[in-house]
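>> received
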Amino acid sequence: MVSFIKEDYVRCVWPGLSLPLGKNGDFLEKYFKIKYDMNIEHLEQTKTLPGNGPQGGRVDQIFNVNKDSIEKLKAIKEKEGIHYAEEIILRNEQHIYNERIYLRYLKNAETKLIKSGEISKENRYQASR
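>> returned
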């Protein structure tokens, strides 16, 4: 398995989480800080592409978990349903996101997994479309 701790952060996706009406990424950052004493950086709220079954049209949150909070994330990620960006790629789910989201937030993870041999080039975003 790929090491998720090579950077100063770990990129994560929280599928199916809509922020409360009128709230922005600051709300999610405060939520993690208050509830779990974790430091995150909210990057974007995005909608998955329609036509992908139950995954289509879903609202997801994309964020980075700072290095000092990675161990705390490991303890809650399954309970909260949070995924590492690499897990999205390993499940070949990068295709449910539009190209801009893929290029900005998921492509680096995909490139690392191809280089490590964990996925084949045929599983790349453009190859499967």
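>> DSSP finds four helices and four strands in the chain.
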